């Protein structure tokens, strides 16, 4: 499919004193590239370059040529999360020092790119129309947006600079593999961190692998904080006895909802984050016999996807090619003894009397659409997405096997979200894939240990390993 250049709607440039020049870019692209008549949506990005003040004023031609540095595009993890402002991201300085200019691109439906919420979805019509709209927000559409934006930004660039480099964190890495599958001619080089998608695997196969790592992380949690065995059990009894605890924004804290806190276990400091939340509730109950509003607010912030509904609705769909997910995480989870609480009612857990109670990981369950106000509005839409079977392919294994654009991947043995074993199967499918493998970092290393990850990836790229 030929992708036409995006229409640049607006550009505003700002200076970050002594550091960067940041341009806020707004593009118009088709909702549906296969049917442009369906209308358009907006894609937002921030371009960032070094703010330089030369001793002599350059000519317009000199200024234009100097600004035409190779592009390095960052795709955020998710799905459903936008990019942070460049000045707040550690990698910005490192990448600019390498001679690039950067583009932080909010994927469609996220950040400032026609964001998805219950209210914005309602503009599409009934639940069926909303579901049809959401089918256009997976990696296949995201990379078409990237190509359209690339053609716009490099339209007057010399041929050697028309390709760009791309970096994908987590789900952003899944998008990189889609990019390599269908538009490799647009890429000079590709980087991923915790983003080697399980190509060719079904959602059930993915969750069977990731649940095993979640079990390991639960054991690590209770080994580090053995006192939390009793604390978690006591907190669950309290929630159950109240029939659920109201949350500040109108949702309800249930036992099953609480036990999804384990999604934090896969990042640096994640065990400590969960412990701090459990400790707050434990101390509240011991002093007041109820959970205080500040503690409930902290729990709600850690549990709710009301501000990122796209993540909740499409999380399983990112693994689907020609099959329905049918709420895979819940079905697979129920087959494990450690997660029998998934079969409980919203206010109880059948395994509450067991110790320890295991937390789930990066899984989305249908009961979450009963616990939070924004998700509740979208429950019928989420169910339609879960039952949809006619998902197009996200990867071209034939093309990946012949890939000529080198892919540099940072891969983590103890990644709880992107299974290491499945990632290694993907490596075998992708020609010209080179890896940095670590057993000392977790999935969020590009944020938690930015310098280390980028140093290793660029060393791999520059082939300077002795």
From TrEMBL:
Write the signal peptide boundaries. Answer: none
Which keywords are on file for this protein? Answer: Hydrolase
What InterPro entries does this protein map onto?
A: AB_hydrolase_1, AB_hydrolase_fold, Peptidase_S33, Serine_prot/Carboxylest_S33
Which Pfam families does the entry link to? Abhydrolase_1
SUPFAM superfamilies per UniProt: alpha/beta-Hydrolases
Coiled coil: which residue ranges? none
Provide the GO MF annotations for this entry: peptidase activity
Task: Pinpoint the AB hydrolase-1 domain residues.
Answer: 70-218
Q: Which GO terms describe its biological process?
A: proteolysis
Q: Which family does it belong to?
A: Belongs to the peptidase S33 family.
Q: What is this protein called?
A: AB hydrolase-1 domain-containing protein
């Amino acid at each position: 499919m030929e992708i036409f250049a995006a229409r640049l709607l607006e550009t505003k440039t700002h200076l970050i004193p002594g550091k960067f020049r940041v341009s806020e870019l707004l593009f118009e692209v088709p909702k549906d590239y296969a049917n442009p008549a369906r209308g358009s949506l907006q894609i937002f990005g921030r371009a960032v370059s070094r703010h330089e003040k030369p001793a002599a004023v350059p000519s317009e031609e000199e200024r234009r040529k100097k600004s035409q540095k190779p592009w390095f595009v960052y795709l955020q993890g998710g799905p459903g999360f936008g990019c942070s402002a460049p000045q707040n991201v550690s990698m910005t300085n490192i990448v600019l020092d390498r001679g690039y200019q950067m583009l932080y691109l909010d994927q469609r439906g996220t950040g400032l790119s026609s964001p998805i919420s219950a209210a914005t979805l309602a503009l599409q019509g009934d639940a069926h129309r909303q579901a049809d709209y959401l089918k256009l927000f997976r990696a296949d559409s995201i990379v078409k947006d990237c190509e359209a934006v690339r053609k716009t930004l490099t339209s007057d660039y010399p041929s050697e600079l028309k390709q760009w480099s791309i970096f994908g964190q987590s789900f952003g890495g899944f998008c990189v593999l889609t990019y390599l599958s269908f538009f490799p001619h647009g890429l000079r080089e590709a980087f991923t961190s915790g983003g080697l998608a399980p190509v060719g695997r079904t959602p059930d196969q993915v969750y069977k692998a990731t649940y095993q790592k979640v079990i390991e992380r639960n054991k690590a949690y209770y080994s580090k904080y053995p006192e939390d065995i009793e604390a978690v059990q006591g907190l669950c009894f309290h929630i159950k006895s109240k029939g659920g605890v109201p949350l500040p924004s109108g949702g309800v804290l249930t036992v099953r909802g609480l036990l999804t806190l384990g999604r934090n276990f896969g990042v640096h400091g994640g065990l400590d984050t969960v412990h701090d939340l459990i400790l707050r509730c434990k101390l509240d109950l011991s002093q007041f016999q109820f959970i205080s509003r500040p503690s409930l607010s902290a729990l709600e912030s850690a549990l709710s996807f009301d501000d990122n509904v796209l993540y909740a609705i499409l999380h399983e769909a990112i693994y689907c090619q020609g099959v329905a997910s049918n709420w895979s995480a819940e079905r697979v989870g129920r087959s494990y003894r450690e997660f029998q609480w998934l079969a409980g009612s919203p206010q109880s857990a059948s395994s509450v009397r067991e110790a320890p109670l295991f937390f789930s990981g990066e899984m989305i369950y249908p009961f979450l659409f009963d616990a939070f106000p924004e998700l509740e509005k979208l429950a019928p839409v989420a169910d339609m997405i879960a039952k949809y079977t006619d998902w197009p392919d996200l990867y071209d294994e034939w093309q990946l096997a012949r890939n000529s654009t080198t892919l540099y991947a940072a891969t983590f043995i103890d990644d709880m979200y992107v299974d290491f074993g499945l990632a290694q199967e993907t490596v075998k499918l992708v020609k010209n894939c080179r890896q940095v493998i670590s057993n000392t970092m977790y999935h969020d290393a590009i944020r938690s240990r930015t310098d280390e990850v980028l140093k290793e990836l660029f060393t791999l790229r520059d082939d300077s390993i002795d």
